Amino acid sequence: MDLLSGTYIFAVLLACVVFQSGAQEKNYTVREEMPENVLIGDLLKDLNLSLIPDKSLTTPMQFKLVYKTGDVPLIRIEEGTGEIFTTGARIDREKLCAGILLDARCFYEVEVAVLPDEIFRLVKIRFLIEDINDNAPLFPATVINISIPENSAINSRYSLPAAIDPDIGINGVQNYQLIKGQNIFGLDIIETPEGDKMPQLIVQKELDREEKDTYVMKVKVEDGGFPQRSSTAILQVSVADTNDNRPVFKEQEIEVSIPENAPIGSSVTQLHATDADIGENARIHFYFSNLVSNIAKRLFHLNTTTGLITVKEPLDREESPSHKLLVLASDGGSVPARAMVLVNVTDINDNVPSIDIRYIVNPTNGTVVLSENAPLNTKIALITVMDKDADHNGRVTCFTDHEVPFRLRPVFSNQFLLETAAFLDFESTREYAIKLLAADAGKPPLNQSSMLLIKVKDENDNAPVFTQSFISLSVPENNSPGAQITKISATDADSGRNAEISYMLGFDAPSEFNLDHRTGILTAVKKLDREKQEKYYFTVLAKDNGMPPLMTNATVFLTVLDQNDNSPIFTHHEYNFYVPENLPRHGTVGLITVTDPDYGENSAVTLSILDVNDQFTIDPQTGVIRPNISFDREKQESYTFYVKAEDGGRVSRSSTAKVTINVVDVNDNKPIFIVPPSNYSYEWVPSFTNPDTVIFKVIAIDNDTGMNAEIHYSIVGGNTKGLFLIDETSGNITLKEKCVVSDIGLHRLTVKAKDLGQPDSLFNVVLVNFFVNESLTNATLIYELVRRSIDSPGNQNVETANASSPSSDYVKIVVAIVAGTITVILVIFITALVRCRQSPHLKASQKNKQNSEWVTPNPENRQMMMMKKKKKKKKHAPKNLLLNFVTIEEAKPDDGDNDGNSVTLDLPIELEEQTMGKYNWGTTPTTFKPDSPDLARHYKSASPQPAFQIQPETPLNSKHHIIQELPLDNTFVGCDSISKCSSSSSDPYSVSEYNYPVTTFKAPVSVHTRPTDSRISTIEISSEI
């Protein structure tokens, strides 16, 4: 009971170990004699390994057949797919399982390792070899002799030798036939308890020896396979004298046991048989049946007389553990007696264990080469220990003799996996000789040992190491190409080729450097220029010669030191500045921008004017040019001098640039009418004049130039009926439509001539009188009408029904005088009322203007420029001046349509032939090109953008000076040449884009500002006749 419990526990423990070790078993069935490359199974599918994702594996899944070196496997496995195929080796069941009983099943076993180690498992595959009908049944001899007594009764049975077929089952012996039995004999088949089919000859008729003593027939034996196989033997039956009794065994079945080490001649068993006859008929002969195997006949001897069975040759339980001996006893009769002797060979511990090493890692000349980078649990070999003995004598343990970084892990019964138990290191141990020991449990125990050599392969597992991971260097620019900068070094803990280091530059390294791959010397192959690049960051690599090579990197930070190798650079070789002629002294002309690519003191630039020039000054640091003179374009249109830029290097470098200052005219002249010569002239227009006929042409001139002198004309008053049109460029006045009776009379038009100056244009107005009538008979009367029309409100047309009627003219004159008187009184009253309301505002405005200051870009240039009013004597010009009331309301210059301007006659104004208007001039600042250095930032910080004012007392005949407004970055643009600043140039810095600030000059008369909309300015001008 205790033995059974121990066996059960051992089996359970073994099963647990096998399960935990990743061992599996898989059974397949294969028929013998299969041709080559027949698919037997698919381990990938049959073991459900297809569910394992390939992404998690370091290497692809592999199936490796594990077999003993020198063996020829009967199957092969596709390593990548796990498919099992037959090989060219013949699968012969009868040969493969020759030592087992005929009725036992035949198996062929192999082991397969599933790699890599992440999914390692050991699979034992058992192939059940199916029998095919590849052998025909054969009789022991081709001629069978049998003797039958002549007195044999009908239906008497006599045993015939049985045929033997190596095949099993249906492929074994299934049937016997008697051929040419001559109706005297028949054949029957009986089945023994062991399942054997035995033929028996049946006597069907009485025999008479004297009539016939011998019968010759054929016996045929057949198996049940497909195709069916058979054989025949000749049967000779001899008719003998009568033998009444046959021998009888005392025991028909005997089972004995004998140790396998029984000496030769040892008695196995003694058979006993008796015969009731006497004499020769009672003499018994013992012999082995032809069904006894050749091995049994070789090992045992049967005494034919005594029936004693003895050991003929040494027994080996491991070769044949049992033997069936069918013994026949015959007294010479036809039917011998039968006895079955079963001999069991018992085991003794006479076999030492065997160690079978099946390599998973293919050996080289009997030695396993294992990389030092092999991971833990790397499978090396499958160790199979066997002991042919039984029970305790066949129980084997396996172990190593000393501590090594390897271990044996059980997987199946008596099978162990040799795997790594620790990381290997070539540098510490290069070779291992593992002694495997196998010992059985016999008494005394027998053991066996085997050596397994493992060499550790040196791997390139140590990358080079730089002495410095971050290398900081500095080198002056303008170096000599090829000069050594530094030497870079690294070390490698490996040996041999794995420790040979090559140096190289990283992919980010610039082309200016070279690194010797052997010595590690870093050189600059080109001259370094700090102005192009001051700092270099790049990587250097150290690579060993291992396979695969390992490399490491270090960062090199190289700074190029500056040398004074660059002269200051002006943004332009030639600067052209354009300034208005009224720019004040110490105002800002422009900004000279200069750069120096060097660094530190080498880039500190100082500016100066060459050839001692007292007319202009330049700031040494900011480059701002200021005048020490007042400009007058009429006296001198341009100034030219040279500016020098010098750096602060130990050996200084300098450069020069040409500066040209061009004095630009401003829009300070308004148009002057030439035709008509005065406001009192008139033009006769016949009433029958056709439409679109040019009836008059006004002509005005402007002393300015360019756009400032281009004039546009427009009718701004008096054309209430829209009878007249004026061409804005030519000044031609045409009749829009044919005159009717109501159009006859005097028409007074207010014509405006306006120049195109920017940003504010200047203008002048004139009265153009047209007398529409059929004829011109009384010029004096017409002149009087013109004079009176000027006295009358400007929005009324003076019409004369009949110019030749004095009474009609008199009535008109009286009406006009009365109306004019009333109008003057009303206007004076309204004017007085308005002035009284505006007087406080006007005083405050004048006070603010008197307190305003001139502002210059720099504080030291701040000054007050007040323009004093000069009194003019009143002149009486009764022919040129009339008392009238005119208010001019004008839209701002930025209005899109200048024709929208209108003149309403309602306030006093002095109309002269050279009436003064209001004009402004100014500049719109521009800048240097975007790539110019920002030296103006110094100027910007100290020079807020000023606002300017002109006092109303400024005299007309004085030079109009203002402080120029300098923008934050630059005021005027320098050009390389005058040609580059032409108005047709596409250069964004051309002169055509320059605008100049406009200063408003007011006429030397009393100015009264009316509260009105910010877009409309109202000017009231009064004069005295």
Detailed description of the structure:
The chain is mainly beta and 1025 residues long. The chain is built from seven helices and 62 strands. Strands 1-7-6-3 form a four-stranded mixed beta sheet. A four-stranded mixed beta sheet has the order 8-14-13-10, with no helix packed on it. Strands 16-23-22-19 form a four-stranded mixed beta sheet, with no helix packed on it. α5 (779-791) packs parallel to α6 (806-851). It starts with a helix and ends in a 6-residue tail after the last strand.
Keywords:
1025 residues, mainly beta, disordered N terminus, four-stranded mixed beta sheet, disordered C terminus, calcium
In spatial order, strands of the major sheet run 1-7-6-3
Low-confidence region ranges: 1-21, 794-808, 844-1025
| Number of E strands | 62
Number of helices, counting only DSSP H or I runs of 4 residues or more: 7
What is the percent of helical residues?
under 10%
Inertia-based shape: elongated
Supply Rg: 69 Å
For the residues shown, what is the average pLDDT? 77
Look at the helices and sheets and give the structural class.
Answer: mainly beta
Main sheet: strands, sense, barrel? 4 strands, mixed
Q: Give the termini separation.
A: 158 Å
The fraction of residues assigned to DSSP E strands is 35-45%
